[in-house]
Design goal:
Length: about 180
């Protein structure tokens, strides 16, 4: 009985762990390749903060999205309005004023895992046939976290993200309609 349990656990960990096997399901990028996308992956975690310059014309409610995955949390996302940013500057709030943020017109619409569980889920607002760019991030590269899972960040494809990707990557080869599991 113990042997079956151990084999089951090993099989489960193998399935959900980060595997950088070449696939068109997700685009695996290393920490250097993630930087032009505004994503910082270092030994202490995963960090992202972007102010979308086209947020109004894109019909977005918030102009700034931030997320982080550190030792203390699996994944935390935060949305900020223009007034949040103005108030932060007036109150000298370091959350929005000290750390640099990007100003890309591409941004995550979904963040989850390879199975389709989402921590950030804007799927209800998306056209169901909309193709997104799934970027796979191996959390084992954040050495201080002791994690082996993969976070999938589904970006809105734009010409700017196409230019930010390494030149040997064809964006169109990776665009997919996301599979999102419904939470009951």
């Amino acid at each position: 009985m113990k042997t079956k349990s151990i084999i089951t656990i090993i099989a489960a960990l193998t399935i959900i762990s980060c595997s950088k096997t070449k696939t068109t399901d997700f685009l695996y990028l290393n920490s250097d390749q993630l930087k032009p996308l505004g994503i910082e992956l270092n030994d202490n975690g995963l960090f992202y903060k972007n102010m979308n310059p086209k947020w109004k014309s894109d019909g977005e409610k918030y102009c700034l999205l931030a997320f982080q995955s550190t030792r203390d949390n699996y994944l935390t996302t935060s949305h900020f309005t223009e007034s949040d940013i103005v108030n932060a500057k007036e109150n000298k709030d370091t959350t929005l004023t000290e750390k640099f943020y990007t100003k890309n017109d591409f941004y995550p619409l979904l963040i989850g895992n390879k199975k389709g569980n989402m921590s950030l889920d804007n799927y209800t607002y998306l056209k169901k046939e909309l193709k997104l760019l799934p970027i796979a991030i191996c959390m084992k590269d954040a050495k201080n976290l002791n994690r082996n899972d993969t976070i999938i960040v589904w970006f809105k494809p734009t010409e700017l993200i196409k230019n930010a990707l390494p030149t040997n990557i064809n964006l169109e080869n990776y665009l997919n309609v996301p599979t999102v599991l419904k939470n009951n």
